[in-house]
Amino acid sequence: MKLTVKLQDHSYPIFIERHALEHVADFLDPHRKYVIVTDDGVPARWVDLLQSQLSDARVITFPCGEANKSLATYESVMEQVISSHLTRKDAIIALGGGVVGDLAGFVAATYMRGIDFYNIPTTVLSQVDSSVGGKVAIDMAGYKNIVGAFHQPKAVLIDPETLSTLDQRQVSSGLVEALKMGLILDERLVELFEQEPLDLDTIIARSIDLKRAIVENDEKENGQRAILNFGHTIGHAIESAYHDVPYYHGECVGMGMLFFLPDPTLRARVQRILERLRIPATPAYDPKALRAFVEHDKKGQGDSVRAIVVDHAGTCRIEPMTYDQIETILERSPYEK
Amino acid sequence: MKLTVKLQDHSYPIFIERHALEHVADFLDPHRKYVIVTDDGVPARWVDLLQSQLSDARVITFPCGEANKSLATYESVMEQVISSHLTRKDAIIALGGGVVGDLAGFVAATYMRGIDFYNIPTTVLSQVDSSVGGKVAIDMAGYKNIVGAFHQPKAVLIDPETLSTLDQRQVSSGLVEALKMGLILDERLVELFEQEPLDLDTIIARSIDLKRAIVENDEKENGQRAILNFGHTIGHAIESAYHDVPYYHGECVGMGMLFFLPDPTLRARVQRILERLRIPATPAYDPKALRAFVEHDKKGQGDSVRAIVVDHAGTCRIEPMTYDQIETILERSPYEK
Fold first, then answer.
1. What are the C-alpha distances in Å from B1 to residues A190, A207, B4, B23, B133?
2. Does this entry carry the keyword Lyase (chains A, B) (predicted)?
3. Are the C-beta atoms of residues B102 and B138 closer than 8 Å to each other?
4. CB A14 within 8 A of CB A208
């Protein structure tokens, strides 16, 4: 299946195909010079499979984990790219999850003021969402994605087979972002989560196609793209507050969505899906402490946030809320009838 | 005087006016929140003059010199920008020479994936050339400008009065870049260098207007912009080889131009201008050693360079040359009749 992201200056394809990684020459020129950037959480079989099909591809590996989406790792990868003598005609391939895509993408965006970038996501989260959109970044001074660029990939290659080496918790966490897409935009996608068995390939394709449409309408995130933050306002705060548990990002987004589903019937429906995915229940928390994390996360941008609220599955609205209103919402249990 | 750089998505003005820095409210909104990035080579009188006219502007100062166009300085400035809680609606102002513009511009290009950037150049080189064009960068692993972005300023404010605190050698070095502009594009500008006394304001305006036209035609440096490298191929090599003298950048460009002026009459004319500007004569050098610096500078991009050759003042041509041909040129003295 091939989708096309149509942007003003740089349209690009998204290929979604089980076993695509076994014949990459159908999707990119195997005779260009590449650097493959990956992390040590990606099984060697996928790295070797990719590298073996390219005539000139060096592999740069960094330790996995959000802590490595740092300037120090950026410097290390950049120095290795420089020592590989990549030119403006060569390209960088990201092979991994969101951290790899974000970091390798930022290296590609800034090496020689920008060279070609291919993204081959190998986690659910990156396959259903983050690999498309061109947002690349690293973290600094405790702020996520505070330093980065917009740098669209030349192509995105999604092979659901690469998910076979993930554990179930990673898969479920990533699927929450697809569920999020369904809740804000597409009730049919929500229904896919209620079928037996789960049709992973269809969920991925439907979700990334929604992401594609949003990115086309709002490349630089000035407006509509904000709805993708559904579940993230409080979700990010939970992720930060409980980072030593740790919860997975998607688990926190799942918890965070429940606060912005005012209809009890829909909330119960979403809760059933989250339980099926074995997303943990929201832990006991201090509303004031979580509110402080929400404020920190917004980087001091004014005294309100744009909360995303879903009244009916498949539609959403943006509602500006003060931090006091957020605290009021936090004071209610997300499971309140 | 106001020029406009017309680009597809982001046109911006260049204001050229003696004493403009005394009334900046005519050029930018004094009530926005700003961070002013400068270095300790910029006299406090200019920094204070600017800051005193803005209602909310923090100053970040780093040590002057090309050595500080580094990732370490980038990190330090970025951390201070983060701690200032700049939002996407705020802006960064560069006040200084090319190093300040490049570094502050790269911070602006990557903070929150890009915020507004104003450039107030205070050296001749940045006033006649580097402040317009949107090329921002830092150095890494011994390569100049290897890491960077294209990020056009919102406006450029050129006040020739700020040059009054420079010493004559700095002024002359910067003027070589304006002379370069004349040689490749505009004989009238070359003639301005033969008048008594030098009309600095006219030279600056004429030179930056030529740069504006080139940038408009070739925003991302795919083609025509390459002619701006006239004098730089060998000039950069001299700058690197003799970095412990040290020569100024413009001095090296002046030396480097002489190698690519095949007409002896024109070469003698340019030599007279360089002598008037007190640009030092090219030192004795080892052709093979300089050739190695040329190759290093090109970052391993193929086995030839695009040399810029000026046959007649005001016109130029691009001539691909192998490194062997460069070495042959180096084996002749630049002062050969």
1. 60, 53, 10, 14, 18
2. yes
3. yes
4. yes
Phi first, then psi, for residue A298 (nearest 5°) are -85, 5
Q: Do the beta carbons of residue A216 and residue A7 sit within 8 Å? A: yes
Tokens found for residue B242: 């003799």
Q: Does A88 touch chain B (CB under 8 A)?
A: yes
| Nearest CB neighbour to B82, from listed A75, A85, A143 | A143
Q: What is the pLDDT of residues B1-46, one digit of tens each?
A: 999 999 887 899 999 999 999 999 999 999 999 999 999 999 999 9
Low-confidence ranges of chain A (pLDDT < 70): 219-223, 298-301, 336-337
- The conformation of residue A128, written as its DSSP 8-state character, comes to I
User: Given A78, A109, A148, which is nearest B140 (Cβ)?
Assistant: A78
- DSSP per-residue letters across B133-157: S-EEEEEETTEEEEEEEE---SEEE
- For residue A79, the chain B residues in CB contact (below 8 A) are 140-141
ipTM over 0.95: no
User: Which residues from chain A sit within 8 angstroms of residue B73, using beta carbons?
Assistant: none
- In this structure, the strands spanning A91-96 and A33-39 are parallel
Inform me whether the C-beta atom of residue B75 falls under 8 Å from chain A C-beta atoms. yes
Burial class (CB in 10 A: 0-12, 13-18, 19+), B302: exposed
Strand partners, A77: none
The DSSP symbol for B127 reads I
Q: Within 10 A of B239 (CB to CB), how many other CB atoms are there?
A: 25
Nearest-CB residue to B87 (from A82, A114, A299): A299
Q: Residue B310 half-sphere exposure, CB side, CA atoms within 13 Å?
A: 31
- Name which of B71, B114, B147 is nearest A111 (Cβ-Cβ): B147
* Strands of the A12-16 sheet, one edge to the other: A2-5, A12-16, A155-158, A116-121, A91-96, A33-39, A56-62
Identify the structural domains of chain B with CATH numbers, from first to last: 2-165 (3.40.50.1970), 168-331 (1.20.1090.10)
DSSP A88: T
Place of tokens 């060998």: B234
What pLDDT is stored for residue A304 in this prediction?
Answer: 84
Residue-wise pLDDT for B115-170, tens only, equals: 999 999 999 999 998 899 899 999 999 888 999 999 999 999 999 999 999 999 99
Selected for mutation to probe chain B from A147, A220, A295, A296 (highest B CB count within 10 Å) is A147
Interchain proximity B88–A301, CB inside 8 Å: yes
